[in-house]
Give the backbone structure.
Amino acid sequence: MVFLAIGGSSSADPVEEGIAPFEISTSAPRPESDEPFDRFVARWNAWEKALPEDQIIVHDLQRLNDELWAKRYEFESDGIYPVEVLYAEPNSEHWRLTPQIFDQHGELFDKIEEVVRRGYLFDGSIPSCEDLEEDWTCNPESRIFAYTSDGHSTLRQGLYGLAHSARFLAFHDDIKGAIGRFEAVVIANEQFDQIPTLSGRMSKDLISGHLSKLIMQVVDASEILGCTDHQLKRFQQLLISAQDLDKQDALDFAQWIGFETWTAMYEDGVYRDEFLVEMFGDEHQDQEYNVAPPVELRSKMHEISELFIQDLKNFPNDQRRRALRFDVLYSNETEEKQNRYLPVSIYQFWMRTTVGVNNRDQYLLRNNLVVIVVHRHRVRHGEWPESLDSIDPDVLPVPAIDLYSGEPLGYAYDGSRPKLWAFGSDRDDDGGRMPASPDAYNDPNQRRWFPIETWERMSEEKRTPYEGDLQLMW
């Protein structure tokens, strides 16, 4: 895992202690260059078959997940599941039921933690065409998806529950136990990379983002919870650990499985008959479409992958325009502008979405790290810092700079509670003022990352919900 610094360079994961080595086998096969799909499947299935049975966790994990959804508790006029209580925000009406849930289900979370730390996610072999459901189109990509989807869903569900149980421990006088459980989530999140599909990568990033949110809820309450400087340091390290910016495995796998899939579809003549209709509906079933051959598609896929990596590395210095643009896929070889690389479009969509998520998460990560060091100063010195410059430099892993503007984050302390804010999408300091509409501020889109070119094209009406600052401490 790497962490992008402001200049776009990377450094090693700074976690110094506490996170155990990843216990899952790292010898999972990877496709070799130009390896035929069936040969890879044979190697994978042979490798999977040789795994010790007690390392395959999907059935144990699903059984434990099911137990959490098996019983409903009466709450006023409605029934409620244990995990719904866990997902409630601290001090909400459902939150008061959490001790009851843990009295009856605490051992389940101990078992889930043990399971996700020890095993291999999937079970069985990559299916053949005959094993797919009747309404599935048989191609390499669909066979991989059929193999991984249940395992990914089971792991997501288990890690959500485990992360929320860690938050419960923190709010109920067990900070040490919470840190250990958050660490288990970080470790187990690596299992999405056992087969590095794009859907697995999206699940991994989703869990990382949610984990960061829960950790920051604990940090925000750290004064009441009595967190030590060492514990706050561990939360700081966990936030950094959870961010995995190395997408190369997923890119390599996507290029390989894409080429194998396009080749199979091209040979079967199903580009128009199935792919176009599947993507855009029956109204396209009679449309003639000039789709590039697989080798050309692979070349274009490589090109957009390079642009994707460039966009990741450029954040946040190159805010003017993304290298990966939709017009990269269009060709003007005919009078009518046409996308000859239509099968590549789904990968480009993932890449553009990933760039946006990465930029947003990096923005929030940098801000959150500064929030933690403000709390660490309070613990170390018994009082809040008078300014960000007065914080001990050894506790701040990144400069306290707003990534939108390049200026120092806003900070004020009036002797009661410190105020910390980032400038937000409009790139100017509004003194910590929230946008006029609270709904817009609470909208997840408030945390979107707008390149300068996008912001400058937006109308005044569309800009208005984002005019104002992002309050980090208030």
